[in-house]
């Protein structure tokens, strides 16, 4: 190997080591996973409107059972949620 190729190889190796060393530090600063906004919004709507028995955002529907617990459907993959409304 020529001297120039050795220098480039060493620089590349040093760069890769630096990237590998920084990767865990960057991952620690990442924001924690947050539930999907639609699900969180539907749940908070139900928690704030205890008299509503059924509500939806056009993608998912939530129903309150006899014990007062809310159960929500899963929205479709391409659905764009709208404003949440109480249906009953």
What does the model show?
Helices cover 43% and strands 14% of the residues. The relative contact order is 0.13. The protein is rod-shaped and about 80 Å long. Strand 1 and strand 2 form a beta hairpin. The protein is an alpha+beta fold and 88 residues long. It contains 2 helices and 4 strands; from the N terminus they run H-H-E-E-E-E. It has helices at 3-28, 37-48; strands at 54-56, 61-64, 70-72, 85-86. Strands 3-2-1-4 form a 4-stranded antiparallel beta sheet, with helices on one face. The termini are far apart. The mean pLDDT is 77.
Overall 3D geometry? Answer: rod-shaped
Backbone CA Rg: 25 Å
Strand elements, count: 4
Main sheet overview: 4 strands, antiparallel
Distance N terminus to C terminus?
78 Å
Detail the poorly predicted runs: none
- Structural class comes to alpha+beta
Q: Helix count?
A: 2
- Side by side, the strands of the main sheet go 3-2-1-4
Percentage of residues in helical conformation: 40-55%
Give the ordered list of helices and strands. Answer: HHEEEE
Mean pLDDT across residues: 77
Strand content: 5-15%
